[in-house]
Amino acid sequence: MADSKGSKPSIIDAIDEKAAKLPYIPMIADKAKTKPAYILIGGGVTLFLLLVLIFGFNTLVEIGVFSYPAYMAMQALTKGSPTGEWLMYFIILGLFQVIESFYDSSEEEERLTYSATYMLFKVVILVSLLLPQTKGALKIHDFAKGYLTGKSSAPAEAPETEPEPEPVDETPAEEPEDEM
After folding, report:
1. Going by C-beta distance under 8 Å and a sequence separation of 6 or more, which residues neighbour residue 86?
2. If you count Cβ atoms within 10 Å of the first and of the last residue's Cβ in the chain, which end, N or C, has fewer?
3. HSE of 149 in the Cβ direction (CA atoms, 13 Å)?
4. CA atoms within 13 A on the CB side of 166
5. Would you say 112 and 100 are in contact if contact means Cβ atoms under 8 Å apart?
C-alpha cells in the first residue's frame, strides 16, 4: 500500500501485511471494520500494560535487557562471530546486579530498584550498549582492551603545537625628510 511515488510502505502497512497472515486477526479486523495491524498493535499494547500491572515495570525491564542480548550472543557464538561486544554488555549488566545486591534490606532495595530515575538511567545505559547504531558496548570493550594491554585502540592524535609567531620586521622605519 505504498503511495504512487514508489516510496517505502509505512510501518502500519508492513504490520498489516504480516498481521493479515495470522489466524483470526483478519476475521476480527473485518468484524471491527479496521486494519489487521490496528488489532495486532492494540493487542500488543494491552498485553504490555497487563504484564506491567501483573509483574511490575522492573521485571519487564530485567527480562528485556537480558533476553535479546542473550539471544544475540548465542547467535554470535553459533556463527563464530566476535563476541567481545556481548561479553562487555553482560559484564556491565552484571555490574548493575552487583550494585543492586549491596542493598541488603528490602526497603532500601525497593527504593533503589523502584526509583524511576535509577531505572531510567539503567535502561538508557543498557539500551545504548546493545544498539548497533551506538556501538556502546564495542566502544567500552575497545577502551578496556586498550587499557588492560597498555595499547590504545584509537589512532594516536598528533600533539597540539602552537603556531609559530610570524617574523617581525625589525628594520627601522624611514623617517620622511623635511623640506625646508
Report:
1. 69, 72, 73, 76, 137
2. C
3. 9
4. 2
5. yes
Check: pTM over 0.90? Answer yes or no: no
- 55 contacts: CB under 8 Å, gap ≥ 6: none
Give the burial class of 36: count Cβ atoms within 10 A of its Cβ; 0-12 exposed, 13-18 middle, 19 or more buried. Answer: buried
Measured CA to CA, the distance from residue 132 to residue 103 in angstroms comes to 33
Q: Which residues of the chain have pLDDT under 50?
A: 1-4, 155-159
pLDDT in tens, 55-79: 777 777 788 888 888 888 888 888 8
**Which cell numbers hold the place of 135?**
556501538
